[in-house]
């Protein structure tokens, strides 16, 4: 395992760059636990100060230190993104693998549901959701709803791989070894599906973080919990760019871009590594 | 005139790096052979013998990670003198292909463009080599097809409208319409039914007799070699182990591997028991020292594990690379 | 008269083919009937070229697809009528497949021995890993391999011959009475082929297993078959005792088939060689 990581770090610059970027972001997020200022408090420091030795990224118009706010914000945003990605992966895998392997009426039913979810316009639904739930809206609930909306494309991808695997002879041999559908799908087919799952996880995280930022900037979420989108929302509320408090907007934007780039680089490099063909070639069988 | 093809000490290896591990697979390891004009030379061997890689290398149809590490491939097309194909420039190479050297690939019935009629494939591939105006070219094509017992209306068909055997004949017609001096055929009949295979092989034999071209015919099927080829070379694990006129080779093989290949084939009406060979072909990334066949060889001696045997001519036109054979021990 | 092991009654299989505008019905198998007795194990060969329907037939016998017409009966039970997982498992304890390409039959990313253990655990009474390993080892010994050779290996580390033998060992673990081998040696190198063909003969004699041997190779069928049917475009054109049929075929297609087989000895029988013999008025041409 460590050998794999070491090889990847040494020979794949995309992986190295991605790891470094993500490590930097993670450090910032972890530092949030030692923040000297309670994250939800306002007016704890002098407002509108530019970056300096004391306040590394300056302060906001609401009297908060930008850096420490940012650390909590990125932690919350990342957590949101991870939760959504995980839940939607599980749904996509379950639906895709099962529909692909079972075929027939089960497949048709699942794909009808799937296609409905693809066609549904996500953003208006989420906005509607906000307006309906209003005060009972919480981050957990939002994550769940986003996960339920984000699995459909990937389920189809996974299903197409499952369909092609079904016709391969080792599937028939597994069946004649007495394995049931569940065993075949998880032990035999899953390794072929993993590269797709991995890439789509990264994409999904990017998507969900983007979603969160969009919703928060527009004020459709609980803007008192610090998140990246929330910071930008408040910066807009206080017309930060116009007032010249550019560091308030620049910091969260730069950091979230770093997250996107890091996830993308990791997805690309890990994907090549996990791909069965390159695995086979490395093992010596290609 | 000299041989039409002279391969000297050819070595072609796959050299790959994956995440830091270097793998060198010695697919073609020091091959020397000659093919004369107007002969059908067969190349036999099993999977991982390197025969497909060898002919790809001869045709200069390779690209990295497969690289030529040593040796030369010299063709001598009429009156031009021997030239190493790897020294040709791109335009010279293009002029050589199809006109002097054509290549029938494995699974070539799938080579035809499925959305174009056969006639267009002929135009795409062969027209520019023949220096004829289009009507004359098409007439020549029809004539050629007639020679091969193909109806002219085949030109109007799409590939999927033809059976597998017909497509293979069309591919052969395509490869020979320019009457090349040298034809390389890589398992052209392997995927065909036995009945169809016979017809296609007859066609190849007739073509060769008429055109006087040389054919390098690669297949693992020893019965096909026995019925078609004039001379036969046997490959094992990237090396040439025996080479002789076909009849002499089958009558008295000198290398234990060849002997086994011939004697293990069952025949209808023959009840003598046949046996398989133990073990497996070596991994070409780390082949055994000395003779590569020694782990499976019934005649293996100590010297076989230490020194690689070289090809020696032990009978007229009959070369073998085997220590036992050199000492007169017959398999 | 005991219940036959396998009985096919006028079995047919039709596929709906054609494109968007022409729904064609392709009859892959038409009216095939034969019986394998239960008392005496035999090697029953089905000879056919591509398009003869032999693979469709194999799939029906294995229960992987259902017959469009007729019945496939295993020990008197119609395969189409059996339902449920336990019936299927019982069937798999009696009938096992051997596929054409051993490198496809095993998942390249999975170790080979896992299939053996899974078969032992699911289809025999093996309750834990050591019992499964014992069953696997015993089966491997039957085919001339051993568990120590195979343990932990991936498919690409073995030769085609070894891998196919491992597949046969896996099929033998539940103690089946019928093996359905679909072109089991066509993808194996010539030098390793006879080991497997001879193994089939041993399985019939030593383990009393019947084998449905499906192939296009007349020569290997000749060496081990007891009875033979020759199929062409879905129909049986000739059947009977293997030696008799192959020595003296009656049907024109069988004759043509036998004459087309190239052999080493036949190359120099006459001064003129086998390739120039006779007009091969081949059955090929443009598709209907």
Summarize the helices and strands and which ones pair or pack.
The complex is a heterotrimer of chains A (286), B (331) and C (288).
Chain A: H1 2-11, H2 13-31, H3 66-102, H4 104-119, H5 122-133, H6 139-149, H7 152-166, H8 169-176, H9 181-217, H10 228-237, H11 240-243, H12 246-274, H13 276-283
Helix pairs in contact in A: 1-2, 2-3, 2-12, 3-4, 3-6, 3-7, 3-9, 3-10, 3-12, 4-7, 7-9, 9-10, 9-12, 10-12
Chain B: E1 5-18, E2 21-35, E3 40-44, H1 51-58, E4 66-75, E5 83-84, H2 90-96, E6 101-104, H3 118-130, H4 134-147, H5 164-176, E7 182-186, H6 194-211, E8 214-218, H7 222-228, E9 231-236, E10 239-245, H8 246-251, H9 256-263, H10 302-306, E11 312-315, E12 318-320, H11 323-326
Parallel strand pairs in B: 3-8, 3-9, 6-7, 7-8
Antiparallel strand pairs in B: 1-2, 1-4, 4-5, 9-10, 10-12, 11-12
Helix pairs in contact in B: 3-4, 5-6
Chain C: E1 6-17, E2 24-36, E3 43-48, H1 54-61, E4 69-74, E5 77-78, H2 85-94, E6 95-98, H3 102-105, H4 113-123, H5 129-142, H6 147-150, H7 160-172, E7 178-182, H8 190-207, E8 210-215, H9 218-224, E9 227-232, E10 235-241, H10 242-247, H11 252-260
Parallel strand pairs in C: 3-8, 3-9, 6-7, 7-8
Antiparallel strand pairs in C: 1-2, 1-4, 4-5, 9-10
Helix pairs in contact in C: 4-5, 5-7, 7-8
